[in-house]
Amino acid sequence: MKEYLSNRISQLANRLGLPDKELQEIDSRNYIELLQKLGAKTWCERDRVFQQPETNTLSTIAPGAQIVIISQLYHEEFFVLVQVRNNGEKDEKQKEIGFPGGASNLWRYEDKIEIEHPVITAYREFYEEIGHRLEYEPVSFLNYTCTTNHYVGYPDTYAPSMYYYVEVSPEDMRRYAVGKGSSEGKIMVIPIKKLREYNWFPNAQESFEILLSQYGK
User: Fold this and answer.
1) What is the dihedral sign for C-alpha 191, 197, 203, 209?
2) Backbone φ, ψ for residue 162 (5° rounding)
Protein backbone atom coordinates (compact mmCIF):
# COMPACT_ATOMS: atom_id res chain seq x y z
CA MET A 1 0.00 0.00 0.00
CA LYS A 2 1.38 3.40 -1.01
CA GLU A 3 0.39 6.79 0.38
CA TYR A 4 0.78 10.20 -1.25
CA LEU A 5 1.17 13.15 1.10
CA SER A 6 -0.28 15.58 -1.43
CA ASN A 7 -3.53 13.59 -1.69
CA ARG A 8 -4.01 13.47 2.08
CA ILE A 9 -3.32 17.20 2.45
CA SER A 10 -6.00 17.99 -0.14
CA GLN A 11 -8.46 15.74 1.70
CA LEU A 12 -7.69 17.44 5.04
CA ALA A 13 -8.16 20.89 3.51
CA ASN A 14 -11.49 19.84 1.98
CA ARG A 15 -12.77 18.37 5.23
CA LEU A 16 -11.82 21.54 7.08
CA GLY A 17 -13.81 23.57 4.56
CA LEU A 18 -11.01 25.70 3.13
CA PRO A 19 -12.20 28.10 0.39
CA ASP A 20 -11.75 26.66 -3.09
CA LYS A 21 -9.40 29.45 -4.15
CA GLU A 22 -7.07 28.60 -1.26
CA LEU A 23 -7.03 24.91 -2.20
CA GLN A 24 -5.38 25.80 -5.49
CA GLU A 25 -2.32 27.11 -3.64
CA ILE A 26 -1.87 24.34 -1.08
CA ASP A 27 0.80 21.66 -1.48
CA SER A 28 3.03 19.40 0.60
CA ARG A 29 5.62 22.14 1.11
CA ASN A 30 3.40 24.94 2.38
CA TYR A 31 0.26 23.41 3.87
CA ILE A 32 1.19 24.03 7.52
CA GLU A 33 2.06 27.67 6.89
CA LEU A 34 -0.99 28.23 4.66
CA LEU A 35 -3.47 26.65 7.08
CA GLN A 36 -2.07 28.69 9.96
CA LYS A 37 -2.10 31.88 7.86
CA LEU A 38 -5.80 31.29 7.20
CA GLY A 39 -6.45 30.99 10.91
CA ALA A 40 -6.36 27.22 11.40
CA LYS A 41 -5.11 25.99 14.77
CA THR A 42 -3.29 22.73 15.41
CA TRP A 43 -2.48 20.84 18.58
CA CYS A 44 -1.57 17.44 19.99
CA GLU A 45 -4.57 16.15 21.95
CA ARG A 46 -2.39 13.93 24.15
CA ASP A 47 -0.39 16.95 25.29
CA ARG A 48 -3.55 19.00 25.85
CA VAL A 49 -5.02 16.28 28.07
CA PHE A 50 -1.79 15.91 30.06
CA GLN A 51 -1.47 19.67 30.60
CA GLN A 52 -4.96 20.22 32.02
CA PRO A 53 -5.26 19.66 35.81
CA GLU A 54 -8.79 18.31 35.44
CA THR A 55 -7.73 15.63 32.92
CA ASN A 56 -4.03 14.94 33.53
CA THR A 57 -4.67 11.66 35.34
CA LEU A 58 -6.82 10.20 32.58
CA SER A 59 -5.64 7.61 30.11
CA THR A 60 -5.74 8.79 26.51
CA ILE A 61 -5.63 7.46 22.97
CA ALA A 62 -2.93 8.98 20.78
CA PRO A 63 -2.85 7.66 17.20
CA GLY A 64 0.31 8.50 15.33
CA ALA A 65 2.86 7.54 12.72
CA GLN A 66 6.56 6.84 12.24
CA ILE A 67 8.71 7.15 9.13
CA VAL A 68 11.51 4.72 8.25
CA ILE A 69 14.17 6.13 5.90
CA ILE A 70 16.31 3.60 4.03
CA SER A 71 19.19 4.03 1.60
CA GLN A 72 21.77 1.89 -0.15
CA LEU A 73 25.15 3.33 0.82
CA TYR A 74 28.62 1.82 1.06
CA HIS A 75 29.29 -1.42 -0.82
CA GLU A 76 25.60 -1.63 -1.79
CA GLU A 77 24.64 -2.19 1.84
CA PHE A 78 21.30 -0.87 3.12
CA PHE A 79 21.26 1.61 5.99
CA VAL A 80 18.41 3.01 8.06
CA LEU A 81 17.98 6.35 9.80
CA VAL A 82 17.09 5.98 13.48
CA GLN A 83 16.47 8.21 16.44
CA VAL A 84 18.45 7.46 19.61
CA ARG A 85 15.85 8.01 22.29
CA ASN A 86 16.64 9.96 25.45
CA ASN A 87 15.49 7.24 27.84
CA GLY A 88 17.65 8.25 30.81
CA GLU A 89 20.49 5.80 30.14
CA LYS A 90 24.00 7.28 30.47
CA ASP A 91 25.62 4.45 28.53
CA GLU A 92 25.08 5.15 24.82
CA LYS A 93 24.92 1.42 24.08
CA GLN A 94 21.97 1.02 26.46
CA LYS A 95 19.85 3.68 24.83
CA GLU A 96 16.95 2.58 22.66
CA ILE A 97 16.64 3.31 18.98
CA GLY A 98 13.38 4.06 17.20
CA PHE A 99 12.22 6.13 14.24
CA PRO A 100 11.19 9.77 13.77
CA GLY A 101 7.51 10.09 14.47
CA GLY A 102 4.85 10.92 17.01
CA ALA A 103 1.19 11.57 17.69
CA SER A 104 -1.20 12.89 15.05
CA ASN A 105 -2.37 16.48 15.47
CA LEU A 106 -5.90 17.83 15.45
CA TRP A 107 -6.70 20.78 13.19
CA ARG A 108 -9.46 23.36 13.67
CA TYR A 109 -10.62 25.74 10.94
CA GLU A 110 -13.57 27.93 11.87
CA ASP A 111 -16.12 25.47 13.37
CA LYS A 112 -14.62 22.23 12.01
CA ILE A 113 -12.09 19.93 13.70
CA GLU A 114 -10.28 17.12 11.88
CA ILE A 115 -7.44 14.79 12.78
CA GLU A 116 -4.60 14.62 10.27
CA HIS A 117 -4.06 11.37 8.38
CA PRO A 118 -1.10 9.30 9.72
CA VAL A 119 0.91 9.92 6.55
CA ILE A 120 0.68 13.67 7.20
CA THR A 121 1.88 12.98 10.73
CA ALA A 122 4.86 11.01 9.44
CA TYR A 123 6.04 13.81 7.14
CA ARG A 124 5.39 16.55 9.71
CA GLU A 125 7.23 14.73 12.48
CA PHE A 126 10.17 14.04 10.16
CA TYR A 127 10.49 17.76 9.48
CA GLU A 128 10.17 18.66 13.16
CA GLU A 129 12.71 16.09 14.34
CA ILE A 130 15.22 16.06 11.47
CA GLY A 131 15.02 19.65 10.28
CA HIS A 132 14.62 18.72 6.61
CA ARG A 133 11.46 18.21 4.59
CA LEU A 134 11.07 14.70 3.20
CA GLU A 135 10.52 15.37 -0.50
CA TYR A 136 9.67 11.82 -1.54
CA GLU A 137 6.24 10.56 -2.58
CA PRO A 138 4.76 8.07 -2.19
CA VAL A 139 5.78 6.26 0.98
CA SER A 140 4.88 2.60 1.48
CA PHE A 141 3.16 0.86 4.37
CA LEU A 142 5.57 -1.09 6.59
CA ASN A 143 3.71 -2.04 9.75
CA TYR A 144 0.93 -1.21 12.19
CA THR A 145 1.20 -1.49 15.95
CA CYS A 146 -1.02 -0.72 18.91
CA THR A 147 0.72 -0.47 22.27
CA THR A 148 0.15 0.87 25.76
CA ASN A 149 2.84 3.33 26.81
CA HIS A 150 3.64 3.78 30.48
CA TYR A 151 5.53 7.07 30.91
CA VAL A 152 6.72 8.19 34.34
CA GLY A 153 4.52 11.04 35.52
CA TYR A 154 1.86 10.47 32.85
CA PRO A 155 -1.25 8.28 32.64
CA ASP A 156 -1.29 5.35 30.24
CA THR A 157 -1.33 6.22 26.55
CA TYR A 158 -2.86 3.80 24.07
CA ALA A 159 -0.93 4.35 20.89
CA PRO A 160 -2.06 2.88 17.57
CA SER A 161 0.70 3.76 15.14
CA MET A 162 1.36 3.42 11.42
CA TYR A 163 4.89 2.77 10.17
CA TYR A 164 5.78 3.93 6.67
CA TYR A 165 9.03 3.55 4.77
CA VAL A 166 10.74 5.00 1.73
CA GLU A 167 14.09 4.47 0.00
CA VAL A 168 16.01 7.70 -0.56
CA SER A 169 19.17 8.62 -2.45
CA PRO A 170 22.57 8.27 -0.71
CA GLU A 171 22.98 12.05 -0.97
CA ASP A 172 19.71 12.73 0.83
CA MET A 173 20.43 10.13 3.50
CA ARG A 174 23.75 11.84 4.27
CA ARG A 175 21.96 15.19 4.44
CA TYR A 176 19.32 13.85 6.82
CA ALA A 177 21.99 12.19 8.97
CA VAL A 178 23.34 15.57 10.05
CA GLY A 179 19.90 16.95 10.83
CA LYS A 180 19.29 18.96 13.97
CA GLY A 181 17.62 16.12 15.88
CA SER A 182 15.21 17.05 18.67
CA SER A 183 14.78 16.92 22.43
CA GLU A 184 13.60 13.33 21.98
CA GLY A 185 16.99 12.15 20.73
CA LYS A 186 19.82 12.50 18.26
CA ILE A 187 19.85 11.06 14.74
CA MET A 188 22.03 8.17 13.61
CA VAL A 189 22.38 6.07 10.42
CA ILE A 190 23.27 2.40 10.90
CA PRO A 191 23.56 -0.73 8.71
CA ILE A 192 20.31 -2.69 8.76
CA LYS A 193 22.14 -6.01 9.10
CA LYS A 194 23.64 -4.77 12.39
CA LEU A 195 20.34 -3.77 13.99
CA ARG A 196 20.53 -6.56 16.58
CA GLU A 197 23.56 -4.88 18.12
CA TYR A 198 21.25 -2.14 19.44
CA ASN A 199 18.39 -1.90 21.92
CA TRP A 200 15.07 -1.40 20.17
CA PHE A 201 12.30 0.88 21.34
CA PRO A 202 9.53 -1.61 22.26
CA ASN A 203 6.89 -0.06 19.97
CA ALA A 204 9.23 -0.41 16.98
CA GLN A 205 10.34 -4.01 17.48
CA GLU A 206 8.06 -5.54 14.83
CA SER A 207 9.18 -2.94 12.31
CA PHE A 208 12.85 -3.65 12.98
CA GLU A 209 12.22 -7.35 12.40
CA ILE A 210 10.55 -6.58 9.07
CA LEU A 211 13.53 -4.44 8.02
CA LEU A 212 15.93 -7.24 8.87
CA SER A 213 13.93 -9.74 6.84
CA GLN A 214 13.75 -7.46 3.79
CA TYR A 215 17.08 -5.63 3.84
CA GLY A 216 19.36 -7.34 6.34
CA LYS A 217 20.95 -9.99 4.16
Assistant:
1) positive
2) -95, 140
Q: How many CA atoms lie within 13 A of 100 on its CB side?
A: 34
Helix or strand (DSSP H, E) at 123: helix 118-130
pTM recorded for the entire structure: 0.90
Under a CB-based contact definition with an 8 Å cutoff, are residues 38 and 12 in contact? no
Conformational region of residue 75, where left means phi above 0, alpha means psi within -120 to 50, and beta covers everything else: left
Contact 139, 2 (CB under 8 A): yes
For 213, counting Cβ atoms within 10 Å of its Cβ (0-12 exposed, 13-18 middle, 19+ buried), the class is exposed
Per residue in 17-63, pLDDT tens? 988 777 777 778 888 888 888 889 999 888 888 888 888 888 888 89
Is the CB of residue 104 less than 8 Å from the CB of residue 63?
yes
- Residues linked to residue 162 through DSSP beta bridges, in sequence order: 65, 144
Q: What is the mean pLDDT of residues 149-174?
A: 87
Query: Distance between CA 179 and CA 130 in Å, rounded?
Result: 5
Residues 85, 185 contacting (CB under 8 angstroms): yes
Integer Cα distance of 167 and 68 in angstroms: 9
